[in-house]
Design brief:
Length: 328
């Protein structure tokens, strides 16, 4: 056993220390989101009890706002939703650019939390149509884990892995002031994800301070999730991805009667809870410090402009851990 671990550690050291640096390509902070992202007022593909609003409505109702160094996305936490309405007002935004081999660093202060709340930060093929070109769920609260990435064999679950840190999701994440999620996409290394909470002492310097170059070397340690290219044909399954933030409610997973009954969130249905309890959604907001995208200096993979979106995650229980998943 000791030999096996030593060999794996040595392999990691060789792999990470040979990693090439990535240079900043795009940085989104504060009002940058209003200029470089699109608000999608669409029907929810996951059939949630939600009404996604357009950008003018989001700004007029304070569901989207920004300061010089912060960007916020909220849901309506004031109104009782009539039964005939589409759902509770919320926001779904999609980046105008798409990225191939890159590192994405999300500096997040607060994520949506609460019963019936289903937030997601993820990427998918901009060219599509989904699921062609792949999907990567970076923030996901579903505790189910599968090793099969094929969306057609496990009810669109994809393959995932649970993070080891309890404060990587929901109320626990918010209680420590959030943290950093990092996604690396590489034809050589595959797909890797790291997470550091705000209060951790050994956050890589380039991550904490948003430096213009970044390199996932040995000091970063083991990634919290790793899907190597040896497990699938990366180039045929993953193309340039757009980034998506959304917050829905209930839906195909969280609204399932058996799951809602086990959540401890109260009597009735998930949809009834969402309709009748606006005060329960005060914590259902995103507070983003920054989102940075770094390109691999060796591949010169530019952003590609097009546009479109869809989403998955689970939030009936704020104590669940985050999950990273792939869908191909």
């Amino acid at each position: 056993m000791k030999v096996t671990i030593a060999l794996k550690t040595a392999a990691l050291a060789t792999t990470l220390n040979s990693a090439l640096a990535y240079s900043i390509q795009d940085s989104y902070k504060g009002n940058d989101f209003f200029e470089a992202w699109t608000w999608k007022a669409i029907n929810d593909p996951t059939h949630g009890r939600v009404n996604y609003v357009d950008k003018p409505t989001a700004q007029a109702t304070n569901l989207s706002s920004a300061t010089s160094n912060k960007f916020f996305m909220r849901v309506d936490s004031d109104s009782i939703v009539p039964p005939a309405a589409k759902g509770r007002d919320s926001v779904r935004i999609v980046s105008n650019k798409a990225y191939g081999d890159s590192i994405i660093v999300l500096d997040l202060q607060h994520m949506p939390a609460g019963c019936g709340t289903w937030p997601a930060f993820w990427t998918k093929s901009q060219a599509g149509p989904w699921p062609h070109g792949g999907e990567i769920d970076i923030i996901e609260g579903d505790q189910t884990v599968s090793s099969d990435c094929d969306t057609s064999v496990n009810y669109n679950q994809g393959c995932g892995t649970s993070f080891r840190k309890a404060n990587s999701y929901g109320a626990d994440f918010n209680s420590v002031g959030g943290g950093w999620y990092i996604l690396e996409r590489s034809r050589a290394k595959g797909i890797r994800v790291w997470f550091w909470a705000r209060d951790e002492p050994f956050v890589p310097h380039a991550v904490r301070y948003g430096l213009r170059t970044i390199k996932p070397d040995f000091a970063w340690g083991w990634p919290d999730a790793h899907f190597p290219t040896s497990s699938c044909n990366y180039t045929s399954h993953f193309d340039a991805h757009e980034m998506i933030f959304d917050t829905t409610f209930c839906g195909d997973w969280a609204g399932d009667p058996s799951i809602w009954a086990a959540s401890g969130c109260g009597p009735g249905t998930c949809a009834q809870f969402v309709d009748d309890n606006p005060e329960q959604f005060k914590e259902a907001y995103w507070e983003i410090n920054s989102l940075r995208v770094y390109s691999d200096e060796t591949t010169s993979d530019p952003g590609i402009t097009i546009g479109v979106g869809v989403g998955v995650d689970v939030g009936v229980d704020v104590d669940v851990e985050a999950e990273v998943g792939l869908q191909i």
